[in-house]
Amino acid sequence: MMKKILLIIGLVVLSSCASKKEKLTFSKFIISDVSGHTEIKVEENGTIYIGENLIGVIDKEGMISTKNGTVLAEVLEDDVILDGDGKMLVSIDKKGSVENSDGEFITWSNDGELLKNDEPLGLSIFPADENSYQTASLLLYLHLAIK
Fold first, then answer.
1. CA quadruple 72, 69, 63, 143: dihedral positive or negative?
2. Cα–Cα distance between 94 and 79 in angstroms, integer?
3. CA-angle at 110, arms to 106 and 115, nearest 5°
4. Quick one: DSSP state of residue 5?
5. Which of 65, 67, 71, 126 could form a disulfide with 84 if both were Cys (CB 3.0 to 4.6 A apart)?
């Protein structure tokens, strides 16, 4: 009987782990300015660097944490971003687009250039992979808000 209970508990734990929903897609990328200076670098495993400094990690389930484990933000399934206290910050769609409170539309071009109302902002992502645009916009938003 005890073995059956342990087996059921194990299956429940495994199924809850397996049910984590992937909310973000990204691969390794760099966001740099027009002079080629790296602003943000994300490794394949989600490790985040600002310049050369290890800052934290982002996972595909939508959690962004500092290197010390403090949650900075979380992405919900409807692309709403919450801060570590659960307060809504912004909504960033899968293409990395956001409309700010001033009505300005910020998005990525097909070439990976960051645009505000179709005007270049002086930042680019390499490689220009639209699967990374939402993650890149989220990290830029957090970086600029904390800076």
1. positive
2. 7
3. 25
4. H
5. 71
Q: How confident is the model at residue 7 (pLDDT cuts 50, 70, 90)?
A: very low
Contacts 24+ apart (CB under 8 A), 35-44: 39/123, 39/140, 39/143, 40/136, 40/139, 40/140, 40/143, 42/132, 42/135, 42/136, 42/139
CB within 8 Å of 116: residues ≥ 6 apart: 104, 105, 106
DSSP secondary-structure letter at 112? Answer: S
Instruction: Measure CA 121 to chain center.
Output: 20
- Nearest-CA neighbor of 82 among 58, 63, 98, 61? 63
Residue 85 to residue 147: CA distance in whole angstroms: 19
Tokens of 12: 């429940």
Contact 132, 125 (CB under 8 A): yes
Asked if 46 and 56 touch (Cβ cutoff 8 Å), the reply is: no
